[in-house]
Specification:
single chain; 665 residues; mainly beta; Immunoglobulin-like; 3 domains
Length: 665
């Protein structure tokens, strides 16, 4: 009996949670990335480690010409304010992709740019200072003259998305007439509610295509937080996965007096040309170089997520799949690139910008020119110095690190530990399928990997540059930062749930909800699965500190992101519960299948986080199946924000909920 059928049997037999802790009646962990589809680019013919990886922290790739910092009389002076006008527009870019004849192909994508800095994928980097007042006007230029451009990818209009809202349908607002709806979210930003990039703040290219909560294209970011690796990306309701896939993402780096980005920084961190930022994403391409995203019968993944689940979406229309795993790995818009480095310490800020792909990264040395791990070294040690929201108190030495969608890693690798003239490959040892917490079966015969798998490789570093005279001052044993955990008294503990049901078409539909009966902002008592449009249940008081207990009642791990705050990961513990089916009313009145939890029993003492990346300030956390994950945070700005799963295909299918800080909703 396979894993999914075992789960279904367990529920129907009335078992209150399987011994593995996988509780829901549905699941997608047996689904996997399909072999190469007809008409698609073949990853097996693509060159590895020949394209140079753009460095998103190269001065030429940073928005604005203003000096970020000034040093005068040995004192650091930070810039106080800046202003940008950023265009979202369609461009053509080369990724390094080639056809069967070895000819280079171009790809149409969307990018962020300005009048002085042409649009790119990924968008150019914002580099700002703590407490710098930044104004950004985001402009939707996805049009040809006054004619809106079509989407580059198939849009599923059965989802709860921007133009499916009743008022927009009644007004005849469509992509063809009013343009692709967009809204930019600076992920990890401590920002006022009107500038948070809420999915309902979207806007198209016409004045009537404004979201129901739209305020302005002009956003203000006060950056009232410590230095950290943030990123910005599109967050349009029900269309985030497609807009980000088309190219709408980039880095947003915050500096402070501790992490200055200068060679003489007080922590001795690698800086200047020895600090790189890399966005890792997976993609599929058509044979002509165009982006490809599965949505129709016969497409990769369709059999797993649609026909294999007995789902019957509208015939002839594109349908959303529960997850996406590309067969080409890209770093800053280049397939399987490389960088030439000196034998010294380098700092790498990494972003997992994939839709669904969890990674477990390692560094391994190979002979120069090697493209696989046939003669590779054992995994090499490196230092984790920071995570989503900033630096750890002290670096952690590891040989591998987990990396979830939406998360950022800040690591230092010492290339002097490897023989000059060698190559170091960044390896990913997780597979091309939904992640449940364990290593997958990497045997192609098991059906969990691509037939022409290369997604176990990300990029390479060639140690071929001569060592410069710039001092290399990084010493992990002496680094001590100002990071402190949140010690505020707790005002409230909430029990929240992650659920996996089926929508009205029988498609798998992950959603959030509560793991206990609660009173929503209208006074109604609710429990279990809740879609986006239902009244708010997470309504913390302004200034309160809360612990959220997140009960994962699905068979898969989910990367959970909470807007506005940074949080501490406290602990985890396995639990069992009875899952009780209950109906879920969709945005259009259709009835879906959801669950609620009863008789929750936490089975053992909680364990503190073992991941190095969880020992610092976070805005992403991995919630493992069958476990309760506890996080602690303080809500210090009023207004409407959101929390959601950062598997983009999940949040687009309503695994996202609004929250409101302070009075109101």
């Amino acid at each position: 009996m396979d894993r999914r059928n075992f789960l279904k049997y367990s529920i129907s037999a009335g078992i209150a949670g399987a011994s593995t802790g996988l509780l829901n009646g549905y699941g997608i962990s047996s689904a996997s990335a399909a072999p190469l589809g007809v008409g698609l680019a073949d990853p097996a013919i693509q060159p590895l480690f020949t394209e140079l990886a753009p460095n998103a922290l190269d001065p030429s790739f940073i928005f604005g010409k203003e000096k970020r910092v000034k040093v005068k009389k040995n004192k650091l002076k930070l810039r106080k304010k800046s202003k940008h006008k950023i265009n979202i527009q369609q461009i053509v870019q080369q990724t390094g992709l080639v056809n069967a004849q070895g000819q280079r192909l171009s790809t149409t994508v969307w990018g962020y740019g300005s009048k002085k800095a042409p649009a790119t994928w990924p968008g150019r980097t914002f580099e700002v200072n703590t407490n710098e007042k930044v104004k950004i006007q985001w402009k939707n230029m996805l049009k040809n003259g006054t004619t809106p451009l079509p989407h580059l990818l198939p849009v599923d209009e059965t989802l709860h998305w921007c133009y499916s809202l009743a008022a927009y349908k009644a007004a005849g607002i469509t992509i063809a007439t009013d343009g692709v709806p967009i809204v930019t979210h600076v992920h990890g930003s401590h920002v006022d509610s009107p500038s948070d990039g809420n999915p309902e703040y979207f806007f198209g290219v016409t004045k009537r295509s404004r979201g129901p909560r739209w305020v302005s294209k002009k956003n203000r970011y006060d950056n009232s937080q410590k230095a950290g690796t943030l990123w910005y990306h599109d967050h349009g309701l029900g269309i985030t996965r497609l807009n980000v896939y088309a190219g709408l993402a980039g880095f947003y780096i915050i500096r402070d007096a501790e992490d200055t980005g200068l060679q003489n920084n007080p922590l001795g961190l690698p800086a200047g040309p020895y600090e790189h930022a890399y966005a890792i994403q997976d993609r599929m391409f058509k044979q002509n170089g165009d982006l490809f995203f599965p949505a129709f019968p016969g497409d990769p993944g369709y059999a797993d997520f649609i026909t294999g689940e007995g789902a019957t979406p509208p015939v002839g229309k594109p349908t959303a799949l529960a997850e996406f795993f590309g067969d080409h790995m890209l770093v800053n818009g280049k397939i399987w690139p490389k960088a030439d480095v000196e034998p010294r310490n380098y700092r790498f800020r990494l972003l997992n910008g994939c839709d669904s792909r969890f990674m477990r990264l390692r560094f391994r040395a190979v002979p120069m020119g090697a493209t696989d791990f046939t003669n590779a070294s054992a995994p090499l040690p490196f230092s984790v110095v920071g995570t989503d929201q900033g630096l750890l108190a002290t670096p952690a030495s590891v040989t591998e690190v987990d990396f979830l969608p939406g998360e950022r890693l800040d690591v230092v690798f010492d290339f002097s530990s490897v023989a000059a003239g060698s190559r170091v490959i960044v390896e990913n040892i997780l597979g091309d399928s939904p992640f449940g917490g364990d290593l997958p079966n990497l045997d192609p015969a098991a059906g969990e990997v691509f037939a022409n798998r290369k997604t176990d490789r990300v990029m390479a570093f060639d140690i071929v540059q001569p060592l410069s005279t710039v001092p290399d001052n990084f010493n992990p044993a002496t680094v001590q930062t100002s990071y402190l955990a949140n010690t505020r008294p707790v005002n409230k503990v909430r029990k929240l749930g992650l659920f996996e049901g089926k929508d009205e078409f029988g498609r798998l539909q992950p959603m959030l909800g509560t793991a206990e009966p609660v009173v929503d902002v209208t006074g109604a008592t609710v429990s279990g699965t809740l879609p986006w449009h239902m009244p708010i249940t997470e309504n913390p008081n302004l200034g309160d500190t809360e612990i959220w207990e997140i009960y994962n009642a699905t068979v898969d791990a989910h990367p959970i992101h909470v807007h506005l705050v940074h949080f501490d990961v406290l602990d985890r513990a396995p639990f069992t519960a009875t899952t009780v089916p209950q109906p879920v009313v969709q945005h259009d009145g259709a009835i879906a299948n959801g669950f609620r939890l009863e008789n929750i029993v936490v089975n053992s003492a909680a364990t503190t986080p073992s991941l190095a990346t969880e020992k610092g300030p976070k805005d992403m956390v991995i919630a493992y199946p069958g476990e309760v994950t506890r996080i602690k945070m303080t809500f210090d700005k009023p207004g409407r924000f959101v929390w959601h799963c950062h598997i983009l295909s999940h949040e687009d299918h309503d695994m996202m909920r609004p929250m409101h800080v302070g009075p109101g909703a």
